[in-house]
From TrEMBL, chain A:
It comes from Flavobacterium cauense R2A-7. It comes from the Bacteria. Residues 36-69 are annotated as: Disordered. InterPro entries: Cyt_c-like_dom (IPR009056), Cyt_c-like_dom_sf (IPR036909). One of its GO terms (molecular function) is metal ion binding. Residues 36-49 have a biased composition (Basic and acidic residues). This is Cytochrome c. Residues 1-33 form the signal peptide.
From TrEMBL, chain B:
It is found in: Cell envelope. Keywords: Copper, Metal-binding. The keyword Metal-binding applies. Transmembrane segments: none annotated. InterPro entries: Copper_CuA, Cupredoxin, N2O_reductase_N, N2OR_C, Nitrous_oxide_Rdtase_Sec-dep, Nos_propeller, NosZ/Cyto_c_oxidase_sub2, WD40/YVTN_repeat-like_dom_sf. This is Nitrous-oxide reductase. One of its GO terms (molecular function) is copper ion binding. One of its GO terms (cellular component) is cell envelope. It comes from Flavobacterium cauense R2A-7.
Length: 176, 658
């Protein structure tokens, strides 16, 4: 039944019946029955750059004091840079304060009060510019995630924006 | 006799195949054993090519990966798409404006990628609207429709949107000749020969892609079908196939198939440019829409233009030449060298191949056979390189592999035929399932084809897939053409009806500076809300503007009161996220509108006219975080004349009695 339908279909839809049938025939016998040599194609389909967040890296090399990211040491002034803090507050208003209060009260994420006393400046700078790998590796951030259940988004902060936000956090913590 | 014998052998072979379970098992399995391996792209791996496939009567453009056939995205172009808010948000509505007003649907037939030096460059892909004549440009950094231009004096923009080798122009040729917009259109239909005219449009493409209707060429009334630009030596020329040179206005099936030959019209567009410069173009009064998307304001603007320059092909003798081409030519394809022009007479049993050099020499020697409506007709043999004899039945379209071979689809005999361009010898043929229309080889109409895969786009699938009622899927079939013989490796259903498609190496596009999110600092939308502290609700008469933000996982404000019946409410939602792949959605109960899908850093507006008093929930439609189900809010609607004041808040509107 099936065969008859197929042949009929071919009759209707094909002009060069003989050649097509011959071709199908040859596929049927030689190609599909394993007669065709399988040539291994070179795999050109790998991503050019790794987009994932470095999750495969060895967690034992993670430094919980510094965090992970481009900042190794961040120099802080003895006193507050008022202009930077003001700029930082502006950026935070667009990119941060939907989720973080200046107090110690949790909103979506934890409140900012005291963060500059709890964390080294380089840890803060790394975390706000490179959150994903740190959420995956930092034990304290992972504990925090269990409470908040929302991964802190990467808000695309520039170096200047991040540094200004840090200065605003210092101001928020009472640095004069 | 031979046929019968083969058929018998085939039946036996197939029968034994069924019994012994040696593949192929059924009608569909004319595939070789390693097909799956060739089409397989492992989870997490990328495809080698992007494939931009026209969505036909869906009006959209779909993006697939090759060789996997995986669907990545459907880009809304000419049809509304409530899923993405396309044509529903206030910002996108102007994109679908035309001289006829807002048009929510069209029929996208052909895609064409931008080129530099005749090679695909990965900047834009163009699409044509076949019903209300338009051309769209889709930006391949955002995969979004960036611009749409309408074409006056046209009806059924079919031979479009093909481009010149440096994307100087994208063209359009009218399928239906009609009375020009600048003439009286209220004429008897059977006065076609006197009153109906063809117009082909040359739309200039600027450095940033911006389109501008540079000029049109008016021709005798015929049906223009497809076109392709010359390249290399033939750069400066454009070739349009045309049928219905009988100029029939009814029962074209019979009346437009009378003549033995119709034409491929060769257009010397560099010459046309000279005439334009010399002031030979006539300014004609028309009306057409030009719609542009602004990346900074996240808003489209529509402008109605009122003038076009028209050159007369009969008056200016050396712009257009007619090359006779057997039986209602459809495809009109130029090989990578620019020397050979393949005309596919869809009712012909041969494929004529014309030579650009011979055409030039015929024009120089005036080897003409009279004229057609004032356009010189070149002698058929004088321009002919040769004919592919008995290639199949119903030739439609041809693409090239860059190795001297051409591949032509045959609708009636359901097959793809490979032939040698120079010797015109048929080299191979494979069946398609069924009734193939267009085909695509990555870069296959450019100077530099990537001749590894060929995709056939089929009109009929019949028994190929599980049945789905009266309407069945259209399909694409991928062939490996790296060897001498074409081998089918995969077939898959497509959205809408695929016509032409283009493909390009994946790296060309994924490394072109793909946009991951909109920078919130650069957002110049007039109703942007840069941070929750700016969130507010403002009443202006009966218009209520809600300046709203969204971030994982709440809206601000999420409690709104003081809206009254008779108000028009505009939710201007700014997505504050600044990371890839974090859109938020927005929907409100009862909206006779779509949803909003707001990309990170973008502002988008939903207009809502409440029709009942009560509490109306709103929520995020795009699963954004573990607390996505908490991303919601309420709008209170009071009766007209109520004195409930406008109020809004997030997190502070707590019960009066705790």
């Amino acid at each position: 039944m099936r065969i008859r339908i197929f042949v009929k279909t071919l009759n209707i839809l094909t002009m060069n019946k003989s050649s097509i049938l011959a071709l199908v025939f040859s596929f049927a016998f030689f190609a599909s029955c394993g007669g065709d040599k399988t040539k291994k194609e070179e795999d050109t389909s790998k991503p050019v750059t790794e987009e994932s967040n470095d999750q495969a890296a060895d967690p034992s090399t993670y430094d919980p004091k510094r965090g992970e990211g481009k900042y190794t040491t961040v120099e802080l002034g003895a006193t507050l840079d008022q202009a930077m803090a003001t700029k930082g507050e502006e950026v935070a208003g667009v990119k941060c304060t939907s989720c973080h209060k200046p107090t110690d009260e949790k909103l979506v994420g934890p409140g900012w009060k005291g963060v500059t006393e709890r964390r080294k400046p380089e840890w803060i700078m790394n975390f706000i510019t490179n959150p994903d790998p740190m959420i995956n590796k930092d034990p304290e951030v992972q504990a925090q995630l269990e409470i908040c259940l929302v991964r802190m988004p990467n808000q695309g902060l520039s170096d200047d924006e991040a540094r200004n936000i840090l200065e605003y956090m210092r101001k928020n913590d009472g640095v004069k | 006799m031979k046929n019968k014998f083969l058929k018998a052998v085939f039946v036996i072979a197939l029968g034994s195949a069924l019994v012994t379970s040696c593949k192929p098992k059924s009608s569909g399995d004319a595939v070789s054993g390693d097909a799956a391996q060739k089409a397989y792209v492992a989870p997490g791996k990328y495809d080698e090519f992007y494939n931009f496939v026209s969505g036909g009567f869906s009006g959209q453009l779909s993006v697939y990966g090759l060789p996997s056939g995986r669907l990545f995205r459907v880009i809304p172009v000419f049809s509304v798409d409530p899923e993405k808010g396309w044509g529903y948000s206030e910002e996108t509505k102007p994109m679908l404006n035309t001289s006829q007003g807002f048009v929510p649907w069209d029929d996208l037939h052909h895609t064409e990628m931008s080129q530099t030096n005749g090679e695909v460059d990965g900047r834009w892909v163009f699409g044509n609207a076949n019903n209300t004549p338009r051309i769209a440009r889709i930006d391949l950094k955002t995969f979004k429709t960036a611009e749409i231009i309408e074409l006056p004096n046209s009806a059924g923009n079919h031979s479009s949107p093909f481009i010149t080798e440096n994307t100087e122009y994208v063209v359009a040729g009218t399928r239906f000749s009609v009375p020009a917009d600048y003439s009286n259109g209220d004429v008897a239909i059977n006065t076609y020969k006197e009153n109906f005219k063809g117009h082909i449009s040359f739309v200039k493409v600027g450095k940033e892609g911006e389109m501008d209707l540079a000029f049109q060429i008016v021709t005798p009334g015929v049906n223009f079908d497809l076109s392709h630009a010359g390249k290399g030596k033939s750069h400066g020329w454009f070739f349009f196939s045309c049928y219905n040179t009988e100029q029939a206005n009814t029962l074209l099936e019979v009346n437009a198939s009378q003549k033995d030959k119709d034409f491929i019209m060769a257009v010397n567009w560099k010459k046309a440019e000279e005439y334009i410069k010399a002031g030979k173009g006539k300014k004609q009064s028309v009306k057409y829409a030009h719609n542009k998307w602004d990346e900074k304001t996240h808003t489209a603007k529509s402008e109605i233009k009122t003038e076009v320059l028209v050159l007369d092909s009969a008056e200016l003798k050396d712009i257009c030449y007619m090359i006779p081409c057997p039986k209602s030519p459809h495809g009109c394809d130029v090989d990578p060298s620019g020397e050979y022009i393949v005309g596919s007479g869809k009712l012909a049993a041969l494929i004529p191949v014309f030579s650009f050099d011979k055409l030039q020499s015929a024009i120089a020697k005036k080897q003409f056979d009279g004229n057609y409506g004032g356009i010189p007709v070149v002698k058929y043999e004088a321009a002919l390189h040769g004919e592919v004899q008995k290639p199949g039945l119903g030739p439609l379209h041809t693409e090239f592999d860059g190795k001297g071979n051409a591949y032509t689809t045959f609708f009636v005999s359901s097959e793809v035929v490979k032939w040698d361009i120079k010797s015109l010898k048929v080299l191979d043929r494979v069946p398609t399932y069924y009734s193939v229309g267009h085909l695509c080889i990555p870069g296959g109409d450019s100077k530099k084809p990537f001749g590894k895969y060929l995709i056939a786009y089929n009109k009929i699938t019949k028994d190929r897939y599980l049945p789905t009622g009266p309407e069945l899927a259209q399909s694409a079939q991928i062939f490996d053409i790296s060897g001498d013989k074409m081998k089918m490796i995969l077939d898959f259903p497509t959205i809408g009806e695929p016509h032409y498609a283009q493909a390009a190496p994946a790296d060309l596009i994924r490394n072109n500076g793909q946009l991951k999110f909109y920078k919130i600092g650069d957002n110049n939308h007039p109703y942007v809300t840069k941070g929750e502290k700016e969130a507010k609700v403002v009443r202006e008469g009966n218009k209520v503007h809600v300046y709203m933000t969204s971030i994982r996982s709440h809206f601000a404000p999420d409690n709104i009161e003081g809206v009254k019946l008779g108000d028009e409410v505009y939710f201007h939602v700014t997505n504050l996220e600044q990371d890839w792949d974090v859109p938020h959605g927005f929907a409100i109960k009862g909206a006779d509108n779509g949803e909003l899908l707001i990309m990170p850093g973008e502002t988008t507006t939903l207009k809502w006219i409440p029709k009942k008093v009560g509490i109306f929930p709103m929520y995020c439609t795009d699963f954004c975080s573990a607390l996505h189900q908490e991303m919601q809010g309420y709008v209170r609607v009071s009766p007209a004349g109520s004195n409930v004041p406008i109020s809004f808040s997030v997190g502070t509107n707590l019960p009066a009695n705790k």
